[in-house]
Amino acid sequence: VSKTVRSPVTGVINEILRKPGEPVNLAEPIIIIESMKMHMEVCAEIEGVLAEILVCKGDSVDEGQPLLTIREPL
Amino acid sequence: MSWRAEVEEIERRRALARAMGGHEAVHKQHEQGRLTIRERIAALVDEGSFQEVGALSGTGKDAPSGPRAITPAPYVMGLSKIAGRDVAIGGEDFTVRGGSSWGGDRRKGGQGGFVEELAFHYRIPLVNLIDGAGGSVTTIRRRGHSIFPGVDGFERSVSLLSRVPVVSAVLGTAAGGPAGRAILSHWSVMVRGTAQVFAAGPPVVKRSLGQEITKEELGGSPVAVDAAGTIDNSVASEAECFDSIRRFLAFMPNNVWELPPVTSGSDPPDRAEEALADFIPRDRRQPYDMRKLVELVVDKDSTFEIQPTFGRAVITMLAHLNGKVVGIVANSPTFNGGAVDGKAARKQTHFIELCDTFHIPIVFFVDVPGFMVGLQAETAGTLRDGMRCVYALGAATVPMITVVIRKCYGMAGMATTSKNGLNLKIAWPSAEWGSLPIEGGVAAAFKREIEQAPNPSERLQEIEAELRAYASPFRTAEAFGVEDIIDPRETRAYLCRFIDAVQLSLRSELGEKLKAGVRP
């Protein structure tokens, strides 16, 4: 089972903290988005392995846009 | 001669009323996870305080043998007490004809019903327990004509809102009139999973638009509360709902001619929280938990949040400061950086009007970069909703105190200060303000100078640094442009001192507020 994490806000990707293939814990920050001059952390919504990051640093993203997927450990 | 037979008849008829729609209908109501109207009233009000009015009303039918059969009216109401104070309370009895209208000489509840008149004339709060779909098309057959919508009584539902607290709880499926009444309130609440509210339910949607949708998808709390803000709060159960109603009413006066009750709190007004000294991150782009900040300042465990899941860029709460009721409006940097969008503006407008009507002073905790920007925000009419909020604030006369925590910019910043009163603004050392933030403004205002510089981005940063030095809150305090900059740990003591002192003026300004003009 995998979980797609979506952007909570409209903004710009400021920093990507983790790489695909790495294990992530629940609520661990993975991406930082700058929106309205504020840094918002996008965190893992489940524990698992970071399967895919769908955006790059500097990308503009819309609220609700998929940012990454996490695969649940088998 | 004796009247015993008639007295017995009263008791017989009352027993029929207590039986509601009968054993089977009551069982069905329970199976749906819902209480009956009589159980609801009993669970909400002070024990034994319910004085019912109109228990004998209903639809009578002569039986071929034996006494006349009565189906009770599908509405139960009367006078009750909550925390020792009188309230008018009523609600649909869903076990009788689904709580639809019944056609007696006088309405018991609903627009202009007896329970509304009771609240209006006795100047006591009104509690609506809503569980019904309003009018039924069967009425047209019974009357032989169709009734014009909203005949008499609607004006009473409206006039109540300037006089006494009105609370509406949606406890079942509400459509039509009962749904509308849920909105015509100062505060509304619904139960997650077992309550739905909409202008019209799934059969009408299917017929009108061809859409197949369940009633929970159409009007459950995720839509009605979280997405639309149609209803203010959602709760997990009916028990929690009644607890919330009691808590909300504890912040309210009986009417606009009285002040809210003062609690004798044990929280010292000069309590200084060490955590506040370093609460705000030095990096202006780091958010923090505004809700927690407010809770450190106000009386312990005294907050009651209104619309916690809607318009989340703004937090609106009732709370106590040294036992006196205050309204809190705080910006939340964790949502859109605190930028006020249309939803947040609507929420703030309603809350300002609530506090103004009931003479509840407002304390603003400000960290607002402005209105939300971008195509989405413009399409959503953010500027109109935002300016409506500025207008509501400009029309309000209740005392306000502004505490600038961090950012206070633009027109959204304007909606956080008192223009008809003392206009007391105190700031934390982390505060900054202006007509617009320096970062956004420099590129536009110094466009030519930046473009013509040998290194434009360097020049932009130089100008920003120069202007930022002027932006120190201490410089504005020198000019008395803010009344004070305080150690964040002093916030509670400062606010308590002024909220205590303003009680005298609140007492002399009681009564209904005149509303004039056109909201933008």
Characterise this structure.
The complex is a heterodimer of chains A (74) and B (520). Chain A is mainly beta. Chain A has no helices and 8 strands. In chain A, strands 1-8-6-3 form a 4-stranded antiparallel β-sheet, with no helix packed on it. In chain A, strands 5-4-2-7 form a 4-stranded antiparallel β-sheet, with no helix packed on it. Chain A is elongated, with a radius of gyration of 11 Å. The model of chain A has no long low-confidence stretch (mean pLDDT 93). Chain B is elongated and about 105 Å long. Chain B has helices spanning 4-18, 23-31, 37-44, 114-122, 138-143, 154-160, 176-183, 202-209, 215-219, 221-227, 238-250, 290-297, 342-357, 375-379, 382-395, 410-414, 438-445, 447-452, 456-470, 473-478, 491-508, and strands spanning 51-52, 58-61, 69-72, 75-82, 85-92, 126-130, 166-170, 173-174, 187-191, 196-197, 233-235, 304-306, 314-321, 324-331, 362-368, 400-409, 424-427, 432-434, 484-485. Chain B has 520 residues and is of the alpha/beta class. In chain B, helix 4 (114-122) runs parallel beside helix 6, helix 13 (342-357) packs parallel to helix 15 and helix 17 packs across helix 19. The N and C termini of chain B lie far apart (70 Å). Chains A and B meet through strand 5 of A and loops of B.
Architecture blueprint of SSEs:
The complex is a heterodimer of chains A (about 70) and B (about 525).
Chain A: E1 2-6, E2 11-16, E3 23-24, E4 29-35, E5 38-43, E6 48-53, E7 60-61, E8 66-71
Chain B: H1 4-18, H2 23-31, H3 37-44, E1 51-52, E2 58-61, E3 69-72, E4 75-82, E5 85-92, H4 114-122, E6 126-130, H5 138-143, H6 154-160, E7 166-170, E8 173-174, H7 176-183, E9 187-191, E10 196-197, H8 202-209, H9 215-219, H10 221-227, E11 233-235, H11 238-250, H12 290-297, E12 304-306, E13 314-321, E14 324-331, H13 342-357, E15 362-368, H14 375-379, H15 382-395, E16 400-409, H16 410-414, E17 424-427, E18 432-434, H17 438-445, H18 447-452, H19 456-470, H20 473-478, E19 484-485, H21 491-508
Parallel strand pairs in B: 5-6, 6-7, 7-9, 8-10, 9-11, 14-15, 15-16, 16-17, 16-18, 17-19
Antiparallel strand pairs in B: 1-4, 2-3, 4-5, 12-13, 13-14
Helix pairs in contact in B: 4-6, 13-15, 17-19
